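Supplementary notes for students who missed Thursday's class. We covered one full example, reproduced here. Read the sequence, then the structure, then the short commentary at the end.
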Amino acid sequence: MATTLHSFMDIFDTKFEDGAGSIQVQKIIIPIIQRDYAQGRDNPDVARVRERFIEALYKAVTENPITLDFVYGDIDKEGNMTPLDGQQRLTTLFLLHWYAAKKENIVKDDYDFLEKFSYETRYSARNFCHELVNYNPEFKKDSLSEEIIDQAWFPLDWKNDPTISSMLRMLDAIHNRFKSVTDLWTKLKEGCITFYFLPIKDMGLTDELYIKMNSRGKPLTLFEHFKAELEREIRNIDDELADKIMRKIDIDWTDLLWKYRNSNTSSLDDNIIDDEFLRYFKFICDVIYYRKEISAGNRGKDVFELLDLYSSSKSQDAEENIKTLERFFDCWLNIRDYRDPKDFLSSFMANTHEDGKILVKSGSDLNIFKDCLHTYPDRAKFPLNRFVLLYAITTYLQNLDKVTESDFKRRIRIVNNLIQNSRDEISDRQDRNRMPAILKQTEAIILTGVTNDDIDIGPSFNAHQIVEEKGKIDYLKSNPGMAGVMFELEDHDLLKGQISIVGIKNLHYTERFESLFKCDKGKVDCAMMAIGAMMEIGNYGQMEGNKRRYQYGTKSNSSAWENLFHRSANSGFEKTSDILISLLDKYEEFTDEILEDIAKAYLVKCKREKKYPFEYYYIKYAEYRPDSYGKMWNDDPEANPHMFRVMQTETRLSESSYYPSLKAASDSHLSKEHYGDRLIFGDEYITCEKNSYLRRKNKDGSIIDIIIIPNSGDIDTKDRIGFLKNYIKKHF
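Structure (token representation):
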């Protein structure tokens, strides 16, 4: 028997040659062993497939005819056709033809072939199909399914039958899309929707064969629908290309992804590579999206929208996009000198500093390819910085003939440094999408070893870091022997690739820097404050952009030090660097004791000279050094150097904020209600001013006493905190 083209109407009138005779299809029977009708299921993935299929049928009726995939099955001697494949499509066509007949009041003789379609999966499904054909809806309700359920012939327990509930849902979808179509029956009769039918007779079909052909009784997966649509779209472009891509999906790419199947769930139901393939497909589509600078509003949301956007014959770049897909999969096959992707990736990435490798965040999977297969596009698990790193790696793998492995290892470090220091810049927000420029910059670095200075590509990575990387490239050309020391400093957990705080000219201090920050960071904080004061450089803190917040280090929050050691919009970076270098210059190795001695020596100097500037209080009193974000607030530090407030949050004052001179003097009387700006004693309170404390009445704020702090030229000549403690002890 040969493959022939048919519509749902004419297949029942067709005779199929069978040796000396012929067989005419009398019935289409969905057997008991078949799975339930799935296209009407109530879940998001099926809903998307259903919508796309309905839309394809709608366009076939209103625009251009469509030919669906093959339907094939057994025809017995009585002419009963039992489908091996195509049950879902045949059921939907049955429902569409029923809808057209009833909506347009077609005479029964013209649609009596619908009675030849039957479900044997359950008696309820069989009876439903029979009752449906004999029922004439009034189409008075928006929901066709509600009208059907209201009929006396519809038992309520039929709603629990998965096939019937799916059919009802599909009928609602058909009604919503086709209710405005005129002459629907005529268009169907003219053959606007066809399919190829391959009859297979006398195969001796068994339950085992049905199960095998029907995915063990489960509905078609999202991937199966996707794969069929992908093949159809590629065939519209080039049959040879379609044959090649589908062969690679079935063999080469399946072998590649097989070890990564089931996303570590260990679930037998997920023992396939479907999800992994689709996740990597989404990654590739996003690469295309960023490369082409497509507006965010046109970005596809699911795999079918992505397929339509990038790979359908409607896209002028469809063939090139398919070849991009091919390159991004093929590049992981047979990587030169490596067993598999994991072996390759672990050759140049590590979670701690290792010679010849880049440092990636502790806890991040070194097998970034597997990570993408299991988590993309979940931004919480696979953020944009990982996207850029994976793009850099695949760029190299697609250009092995142009880039040596040693060059790649140097260049991927440059990219990694840029990634680590461009947290704010790596963004694809519609109002600040830098990803197109970032991918261009990444590709330029991997392929050429230098940054792309073409202003036409637009802003990309952090500008400070690009300048630093250029400086490093030039420096290592003249000083190749310093590469190991530079990379070791780059990999320090406080620097993460940016070494400007130490400086290229001070690479000889790398071991001292490491020694310093193995010490108690609280003691480093005090020592740096002391060094700045003694060198008359000033305190090492940096003023943030709002000109009120100031950043300092902390005992345990490393992010505070990272903020200080990375160039930003903050002012005072150079001063911080000068103070750090002055400290590193003093000792070859640091201990907690050495740092304590530096701080103590400064305090002794202040007491001896009877000069108590801000730095003295910062070092002496822990209240000035909160172990939170290292942030302080001062509206005008030059005019009021002692009016800093300690912040307990990262960006704003809160109830936990306070003036440290008040808290240090009498913590138990500090008022949280007033954001720590007063000490309350019964019906009185004390506030601090530039060079004095004010004692006031709670009732009206009137001043009771002005407590002048001894000073000379805005520098205290007595410890203002000890001075206030004595006053409180005497008067309260």
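Commentary. Confidence is low (pLDDT under 50) at residues 202-218. Residues 422 and 461 are 6 Å apart (CA to CA). If anything here is unclear, bring it to office hours.
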